[in-house]
Amino acid sequence: MKALVYDGPGRRSWTEVPHPTILDPRDAIIRVDAVTICGTDLHILGGDVPEVRPGRVLGHEAVGTVVEVGDGVTDRSVGDRVLVSCISACGTCRYCREGSYGQCLGGGGWILGHTVDGVQAEYARVPFADLSTYRLPASVSDEAAVLLADILPTSYEVGVRNGQVAPGDTVVIVGAGPIGLAAILTAKLFSPAHIVVVDKAPSRLEAAKQFGADVTVAAEQDPLAVVRELTGGLGADVAIEAVGTPGTFELCATLVRPGGRVANVGVHGRPATLHLEDLWIRNVTITTGLVDTNTTPRLLDMLVAGQLDTGHLVTHRFPLAEIMRAYDVFASPAETGALKVLLSRS
Known about the structure:
Number of helices: 13
Order of helices and strands: EEEHEEHEHEHHEHEHEHEHEHEHEHHE
Radius of gyration: 20 Å
CATH class of the largest domain: Alpha Beta
Helix content: 25-40%
CATH superfamily of the largest domain: Medium-chain alcohol dehydrogenases, catalytic domain
CATH architecture of the largest domain: Alpha-Beta Complex
């Protein structure tokens, strides 16, 4: 079969690899029906995630059909159409028992496309299949479902919930990529007074308006002046970092008010300066986190009920065999206008 393989920083290939097999009784093998590319995959290609070794099949967001299950799988059957979560959960360790699946001690956590082969392939092995996949109703399309594999639970849990967004808040989201746009959607569930989005790409600022941002600010403008004007000089109640660079993190710390919260979502490959000389007196809370995906069932229920409109997040669609071109498009959003790209089995 063919898969997208990481060949070292800056190098990738769509190439023949061995067909996956059951390695643990709790495994399932899925036929990949739809898959997408994540900003984290670009961080891997940029050398920001050194744990990923050359030869690894990338990808951690997919919808597929179960074609084989191990003897220890009890709640999934051949033929089931499932969402594959970006997080795998053993279900028995301390963190899994607390619902913190991202920190799994039993061989799970973020492993797909990271420490084991991922899902940007024709077939994939999914560890801990009972807990790490979700059976999908027929009413939910592959395109809508695949957005629940990572970006929606990540933006909701690591951004909106960690930031404790509340009614009447002023929320600033720095970065209008897919995670930032999903943060707009999920922050709106809590009725903030203002959602301000900062980005350097005009196309992404326009997308932020379509997703419900009240105010958009180009990065080269003065975001601090805009936020202070909205808040009577105080600053944002919540600042969500959705890029993963030192400058965007430090901007969030500047934009937040005394007593406010900075929720870091972005994947960082370089150190960022924590200006404690300014922050120590301001009662600011800073949170970090890897998504746990414990909210995926709730988000799926909201999607089925029509409470989450993800219809504009996918901007480009390709056959799976054109994944090399899809990477080029996704990696150049300023030129292509790409948000999420969807690759489907032909």
